[in-house]
Write a structure and sequence with these properties.
The protein is an alpha+beta fold. The protein has one domain. A hairpin with a 5-residue loop joins β1 and β2.
Length: 90
Amino acid sequence: MKKIIIIIVAVVLGYFINLKFVEIAYSLGFAELKKETLLINDQKMKVKCDSYALGFFDKVKLENKFQQCINDYQAQGYVIIDQQAAMKAV
């Protein structure tokens, strides 16, 4: 019974330590960014614009490059059919 209680306490303590680590890492700028957009044209040709970064990165620069990819394809007649984005601390 004592071992079970120790294991439960260790798991809960580990969870809270990890939670605080994630918050601190995110506040310092260490994160993971993943964005993906799927576009299609009238001929049913699909293209994908994606952006991925892990660590310390310039979010504005990545966002501009990602948006430029989308704008280039939209200028060629493509339309967005699916868009996914995720940013989280690692």
